[in-house]
Design brief:
Strands 1, 4, 6, 7, 8, 11, 12, 13, 18, 19 and 20 form an eleven-stranded mixed sheet that branches. The chain has a four-stranded mixed sheet with strand order 2-3-10-9, with no helix packed on it. Strands 14-15-17-16 form a four-stranded antiparallel sheet, with helices on both faces. The protein is built from 19 helices and 21 strands. It starts with a strand and ends with a helix. The chain is an alpha+beta fold. It has four domains: 210 residues, no CATH class; 125 residues, Gyrase A, domain 2 (2-Layer Sandwich), CATH 3.30.1360.30; 109 residues, no CATH class; 58 residues. The chain is 37% helix and 19% strand.
Length: 619
Amino acid sequence: MKAGLEVHQQLATGKLFCACPSELSDDVTLSFVRRLRRASGEGLAIDPAVEYQASRGFSYRYEAGPSNCLVEMDEEPPHPVNPTALDTALQVALLLHARPVDEIEVMRKIVVDGSNTSGFQRTALVAVDGRLDVAGKRYSILSVCLEEDAARKSGGSDAEVIYRLDRLGIPLIEIATGPEITSGAEARAVAEEIGAIVRSTRRVRRGLGTIREDLNVSIEGGHRTEIKGVQELRLIEQYVEGEAARQSVLLGIRDELRRRNAPPVGTVATEVTDGFADVTSGPLAAASRKGPVLALRLRGFADLLRSPPGTDERLGRELAEQARSIGLRGILHSDELPGYGVDAAHVEAVARRLGLEREDAFVLVTDGSRERAERAIARVAERADRAREGIPGETRDPLPDGRTRFSRPLPGRERMYPETDVPPISVERARLERLAESLPESTAARRARLVREYGLSEEIVRQLAAADALDPFETLASYGRSPGAVARLLVQEVPGVALPPGIVEFEPSVDALDALLAAAEAGRFAKEGIPNMLSAFAGGAKDLEAALTVSGLGGMSREELEGLVEKVVRENARMIAARGGAAFSPLMGDVMRAVRGRRDGGEVAKLLREAIARSNPAA
């Protein structure tokens, strides 16, 4: 297996080609609708990804708000490139030992999926030929680019996609590695290191969706597949290994099709609507479908559409994804029938009608629109035909469960052409020297310093870096907080906080965390109560006192604790007399349930042992 990464990090410098802020907003002040058409690139050819997106026939509704101006609406030419964003990209290039280009040329990359109002994305090559060392292995950095982020999808229907324009134009640094990565674990480690380097500039946006990875994966005999827009580092390994497994299954199917001498798949479908007139349930039931049922013969595909033993990957899913890409709910194929309301008699009838032989299979498609059903059959036929060759180059979307699904064909060079509204930018030596003098501390040097200065383990420091928590750690430690307690808070307790319903992201301020640690150290509540306090802050508690009230951790004085301990000991005098010191554990549980994290466990244990000893000196 070979894999490479493209890491995209948003910058907090303002938009790339206008003065709008690089912030997201749910406020919508106006909307408008456009349709996008395909166009050729610099070489006059139409890119396959562009052709595919244009063929889907969608219209696009754009919602604009306070983070937008006429530039994002494509009603005004772009302004000059944001100089701070460009300086940040050049600094990252220097940190990666890459060679900046002499002159930066902004290019247009044709994208007609609606994510850009203009139909293209502006991107610029900043540097090439860098390197990155991770765990004793060197990885090449092919390029460092600066580009504008796309609009974010906010809804839609079968015919229209809705985009919010607030994200459009936010600067992105794109860092592309070479294909030296050989495992999912390596991919995650490289992504973490690149993320730490970019964040060291302190000019990046933070939060969910501000950093995204594209994973390029292939196995021997396969084809490069791009998994686009991975947002969770913890899933990178699963995506990479899953893609390698998917390609392995598809190559096995290819080999079997070649052994069977499977002929090319035709695109001519047979209408078999009348054969399902008596079906009363499932997607082919007459009451639920509004259009024709079309059947496609797949010669030599019998038993190859289902999952092979030991895997969930299957060719049938690949074919269904093609139908779904143009709005259908899916397909039915002969390897999963009888089922879904279709009995053996229906299957036999279709087989006779199509003239199937023993090694043949078929696919059924239905839709309310005949034209769309025919387009779906054509897509399914094309994908089935490519199964005879192995693995098509394609872009795939990551799913939350670690799987992926088809998005579009893999784009090529045909979608690039020069941006005529932004002049070239010379990269002067004086500019590079100025940036080199103010480079941030390297991530390797910083990690080594934290281990040395704070007595942390290398693994804890790595976890802090992966959690983007090095800055808050150093700030809190500088306030005199225990380094161990701060590290535990940032790498375990904050990421593991139980979020209230409706809250998807929680990023407490350094001041709030400092107040939390100070209160715990002062004994206002037990350290075991920190998770409850964090949940209270996540739920909207404005300050420490409010969090104490919401979490129920406030209001137990030393005197109240002593009274509670004496009460528990008094009520369990018989147990103490019978069991002596062995009564400590069950009584400790009783007291801690009543304390509920309001006092420290060590303090409770000391008071309880003393009270037991006074009650029964023999204990």
